[in-house]
Design goal:
Blueprint: H1 2-14, H2 19-33, H3 38-49, H4 56-69, H5 72-84, H6 90-106, H7 109-126, H8 131-142, H9 152-161, H10 165-194, H11 204-229, H12 235-253, H13 262-292, H14 295-305, H15 310-325, H16 330-341, H17 345-348, H18 352-366, H19 374-383, H20 387-410, H21 413-416
Helix pairs in contact: 1-2, 2-13, 3-13, 4-12, 4-13, 5-6, 5-11, 6-7, 6-8, 6-10, 6-11, 7-8, 7-19, 8-19, 8-20, 9-16, 10-18, 10-20, 11-12, 13-16, 15-16, 15-18, 18-20, 19-20
Length: 420
């Protein structure tokens, strides 16, 4: 029966039915064949999304959109250019650092890739970098949007598995910095090998002026981080704090958001929130079907009977997540797989917070693996290049991120160090 429900789900995806409806319809068909009370299904859908934790998602989306439209990417890039643009590989380093800071504000990979790529891809090409390398770097660095706090994927993982979101945010700090550092190191090597020129060194006056302008935006992730982990606010309350702060900065300090921008900002917030909550509601039905038929327990029993050890289990999970990432987006992957894998972690001796980071790095890979990696479409659209050229550009970075994933898996303390 489980293969049948996945089969129906796959057929609907092939027919290009939206993920939320594909999940819901596949599950409902199976419930009907079992003569299940469909009133219970409706009740579970609404009770599942009636969560104060999940209310953090629209709050952070709203704050991220305001900061995106408020000129933050421009000021961040100007500041980083002034400080590191003169070193070898300076433009590539600026791109990576800008993605790291911006991702901590937006919590979204496509938003990070779009905001930074629209400015940095033309700038890198003008500085002598190949367009293919520039596109690949922006798409890969843009994935940091779902690893470095604030991360909407980690919020969703915490809500689904009842894991502390504050601890998840803490756990994402070092892996995010590590991935960014690997990209920076390789960018420097690449620039020296190809003899790319450097920007003119900025004066101290220019540096401090650009820093004063960018510091207001850069403070937002620290405010969110402290408010949650310092016990000042819950994640949902922190999202409200972030929204208010974003409004103040964008409207009164940067003055790049006006009343005419309010409707588009609210519209985009509602659209993104609705999409995520529709997927969550549909996944709740899917989870109800799995639980009702004791699928997680059967999988757990099969793994125990097969004498899977910790590493065999992790290898299997990562291979599955990689395959799913080629045709599903992150929200759906978390909601489909966590009910299956999370109950098994204790038996395998795997820390659930470390596992969350492993899953998130896999979701980063999903953003750049063809055929449906969202960052591929975003960056190819910005650069006005074909998807085929974009795929060629991203292949080296896929191997780099797989290497980072292996290190994250075998070195749990990279994720857990700050929690001790």
């Amino acid at each position: 029966m489980i293969w049948l429900v996945f089969g129906v789900f796959a057929i609907l995806l092939i027919l290009r039915v939206p993920i939320a409806f594909s999940l819901a319809v596949a599950s409902l068909i199976m419930f009907i064949t079992q003569d299940f009370n469909l009133v219970t299904v409706t009740q579970k859908m609404f009770s599942g999304i009636d969560s104060t934790t999940l209310m953090a998602i629209p709050g952070f989306i709203f704050a991220g959109i305001i900061m995106t439209k408020g000129g933050i990417s421009k000021y961040l890039i100007e500041c980083l250019r002034a400080w590191v643009g003169h070193v070898s590989g300076g433009m590539a380093i600026v791109t990576i650092l800008a993605c790291m800071v911006f991702s901590a504000i937006s919590g979204s990979s496509p938003a990070t890739a779009a905001a930074i790529g629209s400015i940095m891809i033309p700038a890198m090409v003008e500085a002598g970098y190949s367009k293919r390398y520039s596109m690949g770097l922006v798409a890969a660095a843009g994935t940091l949007g779902i690893l470095i706090p604030l991360s909407l994927s980690l919020i969703l993982y915490g809500a689904v598995t009842n894991t502390s979101i504050g601890d998840l945010f803490i756990a994402g700090v070092f892996p995010g910095i590590f991935l960014g550092s690997v990209l920076i190191l390789l960018a420097i090597i690449y620039a020296r090998k190809n003899g790319f020129g450097k920007l003119e060194k900025a004066s101290w006056e220019v540096r401090w002026k650009s820093t004063r302008k960018a510091v207001w935006a850069a403070l937002l992730p620290f405010i969110i981080f402290y408010s949650i982990y310092g016990g000042v606010a819950t994640p949902t309350e922190a999202s409200v704090i972030a929204s208010v702060y974003a409004i103040i900065v964008a409207v009164f300090i940067y003055r790049e958001v006006s009343w005419s921008d309010v409707k588009p900002i609210l519209t985009e917030t509602v659209q993104l929130t609705s999409m995520i909550f529709m997927i969550i509601a549909a996944a709740i039905i899917f989870g109800l079907y799995l639980t009702n038929n004791q699928i997680p327990q059967e999988i757990a029993n099969w793994i125990v009977a097969s004498n899977f050890n910790k590493w065999t289990f992790l290898l299997t999970v990562n291979l599955l997540l990689f395959v799913l990432g080629t045709f599903l987006e992150g929200v759906a992957i978390i909601l489909i797989t966590m009910p299956l894998f999370f109950p098994i972690l204790a038996q395998m001796g795997i820390n659930p917070i470390h596992f969350a980071i492993i899953v998130t790095v896999n979701l980063e890979l999903a953003m750049i693996t063809p055929p449906v990696g969202l960052n591929l479409f975003v960056v190819s659209g910005i650069a006005r290049e074909s998807l085929e050229e974009m795929i060629k550009a991203i292949i080296p970075f896929i191997f780099i991120m797989i290497l980072v994933l292996v290190i994250v898996i075998i070195w749990p303390q990279l994720s857990l160090f700050l929690l001790k």
